[in-house]
């Protein structure tokens, strides 16, 4: 091979190796994500205390991002909200939206079973429960 062909093949191999490495890193990152991890768009729609739950560095830096005292299971409310967002996406097929209702329902129940009446976020939880009920009826 001439010098220019040799450089071409080397740069092509490096490019291919780089593409494989990037693909592997993305696949690894997605495989290590929880089904409840919000996408960037979902994250932006979450209340600050949920943003602090999913990114603890926010809660460490600013008290506005900290979870209120609402019982030992209240941390399940944020995954319920993520699942509700997914069930609300009208651009998704009905079966995917229905699938998202199960974790929303389970996390919501787990949250409310131990939530004290004094929880300052009780109105938000109640509103989310109503949203869940409406989605369940509309997605039958």
How would you describe this structure in keywords?
mainly alpha; flat; single chain; 140 residues
Concise overview:
The protein is an all-alpha fold. It is 69% helix and 0% strand.
Task: Show the helix and strand layout.
Elements: H1 3-31, H2 40-45, H3 48-54, H4 56-61, H5 77-87, H6 94-113, H7 122-138
Helix pairs in contact: 5-6, 5-7, 6-7
Order of helices and strands: HHHHHHH
First-last Cα distance: 66 Å
Write down the overall mean pLDDT: 83
Cα-atom Rg, whole angstroms? 22 Å
Assembly annotation: single chain
User: Can you count the helices?
Assistant: 7
Strand content: under 5%
Q: How does the major sheet shape up?
A: none
Structural class assignment = mainly alpha
Total strand count, please?
Answer: 0
The level of helicity is 55-70%
Shape: flat
Poorly predicted tracts of residues: 21-32
């Amino acid at each position: 091979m001439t010098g220019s062909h040799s450089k071409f093949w080397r740069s092509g191999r490096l490019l291919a190796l780089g593409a494989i490495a990037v693909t592997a890193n993305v696949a690894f990152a997605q495989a290590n994500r929880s089904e409840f991890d919000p996408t960037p768009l979902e994250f932006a729609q979450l209340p600050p205390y949920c943003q602090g739950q999913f990114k603890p560095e926010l809660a460490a830096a600013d008290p506005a991002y900290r979870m209120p005292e609402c019982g030992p299971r209240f941390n399940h409310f944020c995954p319920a909200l993520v699942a509700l967002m997914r069930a609300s996406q009208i651009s998704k097929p009905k079966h995917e939206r229905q699938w998202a209702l199960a974790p929303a329902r389970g996390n919501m129940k787990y949250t409310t079973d131990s939530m004290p009446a004094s929880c300052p976020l009780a109105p938000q939880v109640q509103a989310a429960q109503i949203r869940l009920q409406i989605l369940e009826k509309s997605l039958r």
